[in-house]
Amino acid sequence: MPGELIRTFATVAASQTLSTDDDGIDRLNHRYTVIILIIFSIIVSTKQYVGEPISCWCYDSCREESHVEYMNKVCWVKNTYYYPIRRDLPLPGTEETNNLEISYYQWVPLILLAQAILFYIPGMIWRSFNRKSGITIQNIIDAAEMFQSTLRIDEKDKIAKHVTRYIDNYLDHQQIAKTIFGRLGCFTSGRYVSILYLITKLLYVANTVVQLVLLDSFLGSEYGMYGFKMIRGLISGVDQINLTPGFPTITMCDFDVRKLGAVHNYRVQCVLPINLFNEKIFIFIWFWLVITAILTCINFVLWFFALMLPLSRYRFIKKHLRLAGKYSSATERRRCREFVSNFIMTDGVLILHLISKNSSDIITSQIVGAMWENYRQYKPFMSEYTDGEI
């Protein structure tokens, strides 16, 4: 049953709702959008299986309650079709009536559940594969939050050293060739997690675009332009809600009944009150998908420049070294560049960015400062690898 599927998926999704190993835009996709879609799915499912999703007007010959109930169920299972009430109806079973059939309303709860699953998948891919890199970013974020909440100085120093040692070990002992993407050159040199994170964001963008295309095809109501038509109608003063044939509340139903060895054709007019909910829900979903796609695209571009541009990586680390009081003179400039290119690398910058976004700049600067001290302490071992990449 759809209700059981919804509850099962909601339970699984809830187990990951507290994850903070990404940023706010990621959580907009895999957390808040999933929650909204599940709520909509429950609302529509309840209306379908508890209330009366369809009610058809019966001829005088259909006086028995069983006949009315049968007719409603047949028209619910069999696709109805919309035809303007002022126009003459075509013959039953013709190609024209078949092309006008509305086939989505029975499946709306499952459509919404499928959308929620599609939004959940990229986040699941990110969490599954970043653990294969040898570091669990969620553990680092949790430790940073503990650092922020504790008041004891000795505890703060202990947590900072633990986080620093954990990141240092990962950066020192990366074995990219052992990972699933190790043979691809673009995933080497401390970029595995960063590339994976950017790919995850691209998956979020692709997901929203693909969902708009699929909904446009499935709803059969020019859904891809639906929001623009709504905006244009509001500007012109014409209310577009309930005026579009995509979500009609009054439809026609043709069906046959075998009676006394003969087949009788019936054509009845039905009311689909469920479409009052469907229309409002899918209007909201259109705007939500478009806004989410725009925000995710902007977010991807910002992350791409922050991680892939050497100058952006250098400025980020330099900013936090200055906050930690570790970058005080121009003589530190070359050493800082070497620190970023040979020790922190792209993955380290990503991890520090995520710590900054999920805790505070103060915590991030203290961790960067501790890593800087470790680097300076072991500078003789690192100098032979210095290549001035930045």
TrEMBL record:
Listed GO biological process terms: monoatomic ion transmembrane transport
Keywords: Cell membrane, Ion channel, Ion transport, Membrane, Transmembrane, Transmembrane helix, Transport
CC per GO annotation: gap junction; plasma membrane
Tree of life domain: Eukaryota
Cellular compartment(s): Cell membrane
Transmembrane intervals: 32-50, 104-126, 192-215, 281-309
UniProt feature coiled coil, ranges: none
Pfam families for the chain: Innexin
Membrane topology: Multi-pass membrane protein
InterPro entries noted in UniProt: Innexin (IPR000990)
Alphabetized PANTHER family for the sequence: INNEXIN, INNEXIN-5
Family membership noted in the UniProt record: Belongs to the pannexin family.
Record-given protein name: Innexin
Source organism of this protein record: Octopus sinensis
Name of encoding gene: LOC115228705
